[in-house]
Amino acid sequence: MNQLSDKQKKLLTWVGYPLLALVVFVFALFYTFPYDQLRDKIIEKVSERYDITIASIGPTIIPGGIVLESVTLQDRPTEPDRVAAMLFFDEVEIDVGLLSLLFGRLNVDLVAETASGSIEGAVFADSLNLAKSKKFEVELTTENIQLGGLPGVREGVGLPVSGGLNAELKLVLPEMKFADAEGYLRFKCGGCSIGDGVSKIKPRLPESKRNNPRYKRRLAMYGDGLTVPQISLGAAEADIEIEKGVGKIKKLSAVSPDGELAMTGEIRFADPFKNSTLPGCLRFRITDELKKREKDFGNIDLILDAKRDDEGFFSFPTKGKLTSLQWSTRKPCKGIGGADDKPKSRPKIATPRTRPSPVSEDSAAARRAAGKNAKEPEVSGVRASGPKLGQKKDAGTGEARRRGRGDDVGNRDDDRG
Q: To which H or E segment does residue 403 belong?
């Protein structure tokens, strides 16, 4: 066995002792770090929007990460009779790349486990000062995460949603600008449903129609809202490609024995994100089977005040911001089974009006005298003059007719002159 030379021993001493000291320092730092204070700071930040509890927090076995155990995340319902959406994580592990930190970059990995699914994510930034970061990137993957417990889902949809979500998200923000975002969003939700048999949709009528007898009857019937039963969405999936700040909806649909749903449009990202919009169109129809099973909900036509297209679909354009999306039921979407799809009538061609020429008094008097006792007939587009005042009515010779036409033409020539 070869022994180390004196030079190698010195080099090992110079490198080994500082390296050992660094390792000891890192371990000591992570194991003596005030994690309780970190937990309080996390709760303080998250509590601005949600209620959160964390049973315990501590370091990972290998320095560079923290583990949160028994984490509960819950939203705050604005409706007094609504149950809060709650998501419980058995364990949340966050790993920070120490080597990246030494070079002034941020590299964080996240793994969260629930009773039925998981969330995995990664965050990268080329600067620890995110406001000055030239590139910020987020990747997120979910497996069977229950939509009913995700805070914010109900507010975005307007009704309770249930089912396991499998999603993939990648979002790249150059210089932290959503308006230049790149990436994609894809998800599938097998066995998902919307509605719970308790929540209601309520009609919103413009002030101009509130005195209409038809709408008064409708308000009397459904003024408190129409209860939405649990409706199966069947195979729901989406594919959205994000390029230069625009997320084009390539596919967003759901098909089940209860009905069909499809959405088209695009997400227009803006800075700040709350100003982002989603101009698009939602089309849906319910099946006869659902109408028979849920007779009250089968009268949805009355509360929506909307017409179906030839295929039996309702079509509603979106309005408002992405974070508070609304649907306009007063008019169908353009170009999708609505009034705008009907064949348009041929445009009317306006007949040009010619400016009347000045008429002399003699010419006008002659025309009045010629047409006082007889209506002038149309002959091949040229109006012929009737017999002049004082001339016999039976003067039917060719000469008289020619003279009559000649006088009329002369009069019109005088008129044009």
A: helix 398-416
Instruction: For residue 309, give Cα distances in angstroms to 64, 187, 344, 389.
Output: 59, 29, 17, 67
Reduced to 3 states (helix: H, G, I; strand: E, B; else coil), residue 27 is helix
pTM metric for this prediction: 0.68
CA atoms of 392 and 129, how far apart (whole Å)? 108
Other C-beta atoms within 10 Å of 9: how many? 12
Q: Using CB atoms within 10 Å of the CB of residue 14, give its burial: 0 to 12 exposed, 13 to 18 middle, 19+ buried.
A: exposed
Are residues 147 and 207 in contact, defined by beta-carbon separation less than 8 angstroms?
Answer: no
Lookup result for tokens 């949600």: 50
Instruction: Label residue 189 exposed, middle or buried (CB < 10 Å: 0-12, 13-18, 19+).
Output: buried
Whole-angstrom distance, CA of residue 60 vs CA of residue 69: 12
182 and 120 Cβ atoms separated by less than 8 Å: no
Cβ-in-10-Å burial (0-12, 13-18, 19+) of 205 comes to middle
Is the backbone peptide bond immediately before 77 cis, with ω within 30 degrees of 0? no
Instruction: Extract the tokens encoding 136.
Output: 């910020």
**CB of 252 within 8 A of CB of 278?**
no
Instruction: Please check whether residue 199 is in contact with residue 257, taking contact to mean a CB–CB distance below 8 angstroms.
Output: no
**Which residues, in sequence order, are bridge partners of residue 164?**
146
The tokens for 347 are 């445009």
Three-state secondary structure call for residue 301:
helix
* Per-position pLDDT tens, the chain of length 417: 567 677 776 777 777 777 777 777 777 776 778 888 889 999 998 998 889 999 999 988 888 889 999 999 998 887 777 778 888 999 999 998 888 888 899 999 999 999 889 999 999 999 999 888 999 999 999 999 998 888 878 877 778 899 999 999 999 999 999 999 999 999 999 889 999 888 887 666 555 555 666 666 655 555 567 788 999 999 899 999 999 999 999 999 999 999 999 999 999 999 999 999 999 999 989 898 998 998 888 777 666 666 788 888 888 898 888 887 777 777 778 754 333 434 344 444 444 454 444 444 455 455 555 554 444 444 444 444 444 444 444 444 444 444 444 444 444 444 443
